[in-house]
Amino acid sequence: MRKRRVALITGAARRLGAVIAKTLHAEGFNIVAHCNTSQLEANELVQELNSIRAHSTISVQADLSDLRNCEPVINATISEWGQLDILVNNASTYYPTEIGSVSHSQWNDLVDINLKIPFFLIQTAMPWLHQVRGNIVNIVDINAQRPLKGYPVYCAAKAGLALLTEALALELAPNIRVNGVAPGTIMWPEKSNKLDDSEKLTTLKKIPLGRIGDGKDIAEAVRFLAISEYVTGHIIRIDGGAILSR
After folding, report:
1. Which residues contact 53 (CB under 8 A, 6 or more apart)?
2. Is 234 left (phi over 0), alpha (psi -120 to 50) or beta?
3. What separation in angstroms does the CA of 158 have from each of 100, 163, 243?
4. What pLDDT, on the 0 to 100 scale, is given for residue 89?
5. From the CB of residue 57, how many other CB atoms can be counted at a distance below 10 Å?
6. Predicted confidence (pLDDT) at residue 23 exceeds the cutoff of 90
7. Distance (Å, rounded) from C-alpha 161 to C-alpha 155?
8. Per-chain mean pLDDT for the chain
9. Residue 120 near residue 70, CB atoms below 8 Å
10. Neighbours of 54 (CB within 10 A)
11. What would the mean pLDDT of 38-56 be, rounded to a whole number?
């Protein structure tokens, strides 16, 4: 009997990461849901998915800004199921940085989580992905292609991830596929980035399809890339046409 494929998703406890986890789980994958601070939400996700299919999901807590934690996350995956078929680099930080007052800590935070961590996690996972002709999906951003005013460091980090996606598709072929998904506005932001009604209306006017995206829109693109064996080095833009109106 063929083993179920295994997907490791970073930042899987909440919002987009949780939707990706549920979508790949429904596709038949076993899930490793990485989290950092959202352990309660990760445990709830594990319980939900395991109630659907027993012993199909585990959570792994790690602060990946410490690169020494990359190996334990991969090892936890291998220890549980003996293989890794897809790595989804979803964990991200997003906030504005005003040029002229950007701190070293802001730079390091945005670049580390959005660019450096995906690279080193891929490098750590590479031998296992190679064994099963696995694949990688990086969650990029449409603002990697056309920058968003007020977010120069974030945009630079995501632009780096976009080019890294293409570069590694070349480096890791033919045994590992590397692709990306570039979301536009997907779910309204929370907390410090929360928008008021007028700001939401302004955002919607810039989207030809007239609505923001749902997590499912991104998760379905990830699912497509996970199972499409002749696609590599490609970044799918999921933005309702927003990039066309800039």
Report:
1. 25
2. beta
3. 20, 9, 15
4. 98
5. 26
6. yes
7. 10
8. 93
9. yes
10. 8
11. 97
What CA–CA distance (Å, rounded) separates 181 from 19? 14
Q: Which of 53-57, 171-175, 205-209 has the lowest mean pLDDT?
A: 205-209
For residue 108, give every residue at least 6 positions away whose Cβ sits within 8 Å of its Cβ, in sequence order, or none. Answer: none
Quote the crossing angle between the two packed helices 117-131 and 70-81, to the nearest 10°: 30
More confident site: 187 or 86: 86
Q: What is the rounded CA–CA span in Å between residue 217 and residue 188? A: 14
pLDDT given for residue 97 in this prediction: 96
The pTM assigned to this predicted structure is: 0.94
Please give the single-letter amino acid code of residue 88.
V
Report the DSSP beta bridge partners of residue 237: 182
User: For the chain, how are helix, strand and coil distributed in percent, rounded to 5?
Assistant: 50, 15, 35
Q: Could you tell me which residues come within 8 angstroms of residue 176 by beta carbon, excluding any fewer than 6 positions away?
A: 126, 129, 130, 133, 134, 135, 136
The helix (run of H) or strand (run of E) holding residue 170 is helix 152-172
Task: Please give the Cα distance from 19 to 35 (Å, whole number).
Answer: 14
What is the number of other CB atoms lying within 10 angstroms of the CB of residue 242? 22
Pick from 151, 150, 245, 155: nearest CA to 206: 245
d(CA 238, CA 183): 5
- Which residue numbers are catalytic? 154
- Residue 9 region, left (φ>0) first, then alpha (ψ -120 to 50), else beta? beta
Three-class DSSP category at 150: coil
Compute the distance between CA of residue 90 and CA of residue 113 in angstroms, rounded to an integer.
10
Q: Which of 233, 121, 127 is nearest to 170 (CA)?
A: 233
pLDDT of residue 246: 66
Q: What is the DSSP letter of 103?
A: -
